[in-house]
Amino acid sequence: MTQPIHMALAGNPNAGKTTLFNTLTGARQHVGNYPGITVDYKEGFFTHNNQEINLTDLPGTYSLTAYSVEEVVTRDYLVNEKPQVVINIIDASNLERNLYLTTQFLELGCPLIIALNMIDVAKDRGIAINPEKLAALLGVPVAPIIARNGQGTDLLISQAVHQSSQQWQPRDISYGEDLDAVIMEMITLITEQNFLLSTYPPRFTAIKYLEHDEQMLQKGRQENSLTATSLEEKVTQVSDHLLKTMDAYPEAIIADHRYGFIKSILRQGVQTHSFDTDRLYTSDKIDKILTNRLLGPLFMCLVLFGLYQFTFSWSEIPVSWLESFFGWLGSQAETLLPDGPVKSMLISGVIGGMGGVLGFVPLIMFMFLGIAILEDSGYLARVAFMMDRIFRIFGLHGSSVMPFIISGGIAGGCAVPGVMATRTLRSPKERLATILTVPFMNCGAKVPVIALLIGAFFSENKAMYMFLFTLISWVVALLAAKLLRLTVLKGAATPFVMELPPYRFPTMQGLAIHTWERTWQYIKKAGTVILGISILLWAMMSYPELPAARQADFEQQRRQISDAVTPAILAESTSKSEAVSEEALALRQQITFIDRQESEQALRNSIAGKIGLALEPVSTLAGFEWRTNIALVGGFAAKEVIISTLGTAYSMGDVKAEASDSLGQRLTTDPSWNKVVAVSALIFIMFYAPCFVTVVCIAKEAGHWGWALFSVSFNTIFAFLLATAVYQIGIRIG
Ligand code: GDP
Ligand code: MG
Fold first, then answer.
1. Which of 205, 230, 248 marks a domain boundary?
2. How far is the CA of 302 from the centre of ligand 1 (A)?
3. Full DSSP string of 580-640
4. For residue 302, what are the domain limits?
5. Using CA atoms, how far apart are residues 595 and 655, in angstroms rounded to an integer?
6. pLDDT band at 274, cuts 50/70/90?
7. Closest ligand to residue 147's CA
């Protein structure tokens, strides 16, 4: 076979890129880094008529000007990786807006082919498109397709293969007399100075300068500051001139001309409507109800509640299977391995730590499936749209909604991509307020802890409580945002408009891939970061060991009790049999009692135990005893380890519980836990310091470690005050 051909897939958000990508590559793909957003590109492989093809799914963008991360990623990829052909996927039912990006591919000059997608939707809406004419006018092949069922994709790829042998060839679009003249001057200068020529065509650079593209301006200054300065001067001159003569900035004039170029193409018989476009499309009709001021929020609550109901009821059985599997694994290790630190590390650190996280995989998977359905159908965008009205009140921006949802606003996201998704916010203060409050959402790591505590203390109505705690997370996050916007981040609000993509039926394949991608991220984390932290915590909970004298003391007590009975009873008590005589049973219980006391003393003596005990005088205000403190301290690193640490701490230190009890059962029978403590702990866990990875991400995104430290200390103090209030009020009203 010949060399693989390198193709890139680009287009507006919701044009169908991912659908086409999945149709073409199937399972042969590598996926991006974080759940929630596709800022990292995906790569996949497939063969077409014996030709190996390597396909990259670029993030969705509306333009190639560096206004958002997606645009920067896409543009950098095109100019640095130079794919042999770009497949520009276009939503045929929204041709005019989608072609805006196409004009910029033409200006960049990359070999191009247009995949005219969703021709079924266009047809339903009475839009008739003539692909041959469009191709002739744009000078680019156009292949009509339906990405969802693969119709037309064969022909698309054949034509794309053909296009891949083309050279890069930028096309010119006229931007009116004034701009064209200055663009010519700039091109001369750029060519003479060999300015960024290896990366961008000269006209492209000139236009990006006129559009005030920050990234381009920065690159220019690094490349050759002299040339950059004179280019910037030219831009200032022409901007002043345009402001005086036309009362407009160059960006606006450039955009006008691009749309003009598109309109002139569409009018020449490319697009015709067989019936009135103004009529209410199905989507608009649905939206009349679903985003109605009154019915909309009501329906939204119903949908979210349904999601929790679905997640909890469907995952219950597989979760219990996994629980018993890890229990079985633990007991196997218990019987098969020789006593010693390795055994203890494997059981408490590895099996306990990973089991605590992996045991919740079914729950997380159902949650992600539900969210994928909401997202793929287009409903999630409506949620954002409705929440926008509320966000205004709290000094946040409509664009803050998605970061909140990604971070776990519906439960089960992750604050890391959530913090990164704030890049779409332009106002630094609104962005910071969003960055600092998204970690309050119930991310995928908190959900299992919440599920555990709800399951143990409020098992009558799990979905209702989950819904309630989600609601609390939003209320607290919004109030905290308001607090920040009234104090450290005071400032005016910026305006916002939002488009709603039409509703669509999600595809099975799309749902399966979205669900799996996110679940896999969760599993991967359990196998790496969480495993490391679990082992570290195990070590902190096991060392230093009890002094030899105290160990000998416990050994002495055991011997004394054993010596007091006949050898026959002693043998009976250490046998595996359940049915033993009363004396043997009593002996067994006494020995277990001493064992437990010994392990409790050992835990108290360990580093972690000492930390937990040292915090106890303060933490009891919120109802937490020293063993809970150990788990909460572990949670600073990653919230996932709270469960496994609680599991270890309460199996080591609990004097009465049966060895086979689940953690939930142990907590309900432990005297230091009750419903009030459970709520107080839930509140604390939901709102205290973000996990370590998020903190690093906040520092990076906010551009300052100060904000990361602020987030850790502010959240922890804030959460502790809330938890204390809950506990103090709770015990008073019983
Ligand atoms: P992306 O944002 O560009 O990756 O878009 P997606 O691939 O996620 O597609 C957005 C929505 O459009 C999904 O719900 C798809 O199922 C749907 N979709 C994609 N292609 C077609 C098509 O040809 N016809 C129809 N009716 N729906 C499509
Ligand atoms: Mg996509």
1. 248
2. 26
3. --HHHHHHHHHHHHHHHHHHHHHHHHSHHHHHHHHHHHHHGGGT--HHHHHHHHHHTT-TT
4. 280-543+616-734
5. 9
6. low
7. 1
Q: What is the pLDDT of residues 516-541, one digit of tens each?
A: 887 887 788 777 777 888 888 888 98
Q: How far is the CA of 282 from the centre of ligand 1 (A)?
A: 16
Q: Are residues 535 and 469 in the same domain?
A: yes
Our count of domains for the chain comes to: 4
**Ligand 1 pocket test: which of 504, 513, 514, 517 has the largest number of ligand atoms within 8 Å of its C-beta?**
504
Rounded distance, CA 654 to CA 434, Å?
A: 42
Q: Which residue is listed with tokens 């990875």?
A: 693
Say whether both 104 and 201 belong to one domain.
no
pLDDT of residue 368: 80
Contacts of 298 (CB under 8 A, 6+ apart): none
CA gap 347, 189 in Å, rounded: 70
Of 694, 697, 713, 692, the residue nearest 439 (C-alpha): 694
Query: Relative to the CA of 151, which ligand 1 atom is closest?
Result: 23
Characterize the bridge pairing of strands 5-11 and 85-91.
parallel
Residue 501 has pLDDT above 70, yes or no: no
- Kindly state whether residues 63 and 147 are assigned to the same domain: yes
Q: Is 36 a residue whose pLDDT tops 50?
A: no
Q: How would residue 35 be classed by pLDDT, with cut points 50, 70 and 90?
A: very low
509 Cβ below 6 A of ligand 1: no
* 16 lies in the same domain as 148: yes
Residue 442: its H or E element: none
Whole-number pLDDT of residue 279? 44
Select from 634, 701, 686 the least CA-distant residue to 357: 634
* Distance (Å, whole) CA 685 – CA 443: 11
| Distance of alpha carbon 89 from alpha carbon 15, whole angstroms | 6
Q: Is 240 exposed, middle or buried (0-12, 13-18, 19+ CB in 10 A)?
A: exposed
CA of 399 to the centre of ligand 2 (A): 18
Is pLDDT larger for residue 155 or for residue 388? 155
Give the number of other CB atoms < 10 A from CB of residue 502: 19
pLDDT at 686 over 90: yes
**Both structure tokens of 601:** 């003393």
pLDDT of residue 715: 95
**CB-CB neighbours of 724 under 10 Å:** 20
Radius of gyration of the chain (CA): 31
Q: Does residue 586 sit within a domain?
A: yes
Q: Rounded CA gap, 235 and 310, in Å?
A: 57
Mean pLDDT to the nearest integer, 680-690: 96
136 and 195 share one domain: no
Identify which of 17, 18, 19, 121 to mutate to test ligand 1's pocket (most ligand atoms within 8 A of the CB). 19
Residues 84, 230 share a domain: no
State if residue 373 touches ligand 1 by the CB under 6 angstroms criterion: no
Backbone angles phi, psi at 168, to 5 degrees: -70, 130
For residue 148, the CA-to-ligand 1 centroid distance in Å is 7
pTM assigned to the model: 0.61
Is 187 domain-assigned?
yes
Are residue 510 and residue 578 in the same domain, yes or no? Answer: no
Ligand 1 centre distance from Cα of residue 666 (Å): 48
720 with 622: CB under 8 angstroms?
yes
